[in-house]
Amino acid sequence: DAKTTQPNSMESNEEEPVHLPCNHSTISGTDYIHWYRQLPSQGPEYVIHGLTSNVNNRMASLAIAEDRKSSTLILHRATLRDAAVYYCILRDYGGSQGNLIFGKGTKLSVKP
Amino acid sequence: GAGVSQSPSNKVTEKGKDVELRCDPISGHTALYWYRQSLGQGLEFLIYFQGNSAPDKSGLPSDRFSAERTGGSVSTLTIQRTQQEDSAVYLCASSFDRTEAFFGQGTRLTVV
Q1: Which of A20, B9, B57, B83 has the most beta carbons within 10 angstroms of its beta carbon?
Q2: Helices within A38-103 (DSSP H only)
Q3: Is the torsion defined by CA of B13, B61, A33, A87 positive or negative?
């Protein structure tokens, strides 16, 4: 399975942008990059996903490197509610399975 | 229903008893996932159903664990002869194919 590498933890100040990195050097051509986050005491929630082009939605932006070996989740203005564990996951869209496997993620702390 | 529903929300059982955990996915979703999360730990993948394909059971920790999905909808996770190490929050999620997965609130299982 294609793996991702993320820092264990990051800190941010409230109302500042946050850039959460993810390395996936063994990504294959049919892998999509998905991001989920898990707020304290809640189940995970979807954030964003992409293949090659940068993506924006109401929650965040996803910047994907040209060689697709890394990506960055961007929270434009962190709020206290954004404190969570953020997971970067590769999903295979080419085969019959395409499971959703969570790694350890990055624990984001937001300081007021 | 509007979201993924899991029941019961809490379950306390005696060591050695069997338990059944239920997941009602979002109507029309083809994929269904089970995970468990021990206190302070990450999400451990258990099993993944995708349409009519054979389920990916590679995450089931022992033969005491089994799951089925009837009629492509409701799923039941069964744990036989429960052990104290089975205590965790069991999370279910569903998605339409490999799109955004929606998670239920989980079942907190305590084995005493």
Answers
A1: A20
A2: none
A3: positive
Q: Closest-CA residue in chain B for A35?
A: B100
Q: Which amino acid is at B40?
A: G
Residues of B in contact with A36 (CB under 8 A): 101
What pLDDT digit, counting tens, does each position of A33-66 carry?
Answer: 999 999 998 999 999 999 999 999 999 999 999 9
**Which of B45, B100, B102 is facing A99, going by the closest CB pair?**
B45
Query: Are B50 and A101 a contacting pair at CB < 8 A?
Result: no
Indicate the residue of B43, B56, B103 with minimum beta-carbon distance to A99: B56
For residue B56, what are the CA distances in angstroms to A9, A59, B74? 31, 31, 17
CA–CA gap between residue A4 and residue B43 (Å, rounded): 15
Determine the pLDDT at residue A55. Answer: 95
Q: Can you read off the two tokens belonging to residue B79? A: 């744990």
Q: Give residue B106's region: left, alpha or beta (phi > 0; psi -120 to 50).
A: left
- Beta-carbon contacts of B1 under 8 Å, excluding residues fewer than 6 positions away, are B24, B26, B27
CA-nearest of A66, A78, A88 to A7 is A88
Residue A96 pLDDT: 64
Q: Would the pLDDT of B1 be above 60?
A: no
